[in-house]
Amino acid sequence: MTFAARLISIFLLPLLAACGSADRYAVTAPAVIEKTNISFAAVEVRDVSLPSYAAADEITIRAADGTLTSSSDVLWADAPERAIALELSRNLARMTNRRVASEPWPFEAFPDARLEIRFAELVATEAGQFVTSGQYFVAVADGRRERSGLFDLSVAFDPAGGPNAIAQARGQLILDLARYIALNGLK
């Protein structure tokens, strides 16, 4: 058994199987948000596209050999696609002081830009990294330059912290992604 497999069996599997009913883990947003300016007064965050394992309610862990493991006893507190779109909207609004909302757009006036994010990967690893990669798209209706870009980010966490550590890492990772998109896609 590899070190990583032992780590899962020692720390995470007992947490995953500890109870008969499902435990739900909420993602907490980091308190410190670095302010940044963007070129748009209003941005709509479209529904995000996640891989099937990341869109599921179960918290998934990737082993060193690439195997994905999850348990129906350890769940995210909210549907991942909805939660991530709301996290991105909230983080972008807090860091830019602009009107940012996830779809459906709640305002009468249309947004200046629409942001769509397609995740290729969004998973915690047994080695203690929460990783994501994918592509973002910024659609603009007023003739300004539309843009897109790739992202590849990770955040470290302590695997001994179990699902709570994973949830905190995801919160930090989505904040980092919002900052990356604000600086590279919304300027």
Report on the structure:
The chain is of the alpha/beta class. It has a single domain, classed as 3-Layer(aba) Sandwich (Rossmann fold). The protein is 31% helix and 32% strand. Strands 1, 2, 3, 4, 5, 6, 7 and 8 form an eight-stranded mixed sheet that branches. A hairpin with a 3-residue loop joins strand 6 and strand 7. The longest helix is centred in the C-terminal third of the chain and has 23 residues. The chain is elongated and about 50 Å long.
Distance between the termini: 48 Å
CATH class: Alpha Beta
Count of all domains: 1
Strand content: 25-35%
Structural shape: elongated
Number of helices: 4
Q: What's the multimeric state?
A: single chain
Largest sheet: 8 strands, mixed
Low-confidence stretches: 3-7
The succession of helices and strands, N to C, reads HEEHEEHEEEEH
Q: Could you please say which CATH topology applies here?
A: Rossmann fold
Q: What is the overall pLDDT average?
A: 90
What is the name of the CATH architecture?
A: 3-Layer(aba) Sandwich
β-strand number: 8
Computed CA radius of gyration, to the nearest angstrom: 17 Å
Superfamily (CATH H level) name: ABC-type transport auxiliary lipoprotein component
Helix fraction bin = 25-40%
Determine the structural class based on helices, strands and strand pairing.
Answer: alpha/beta
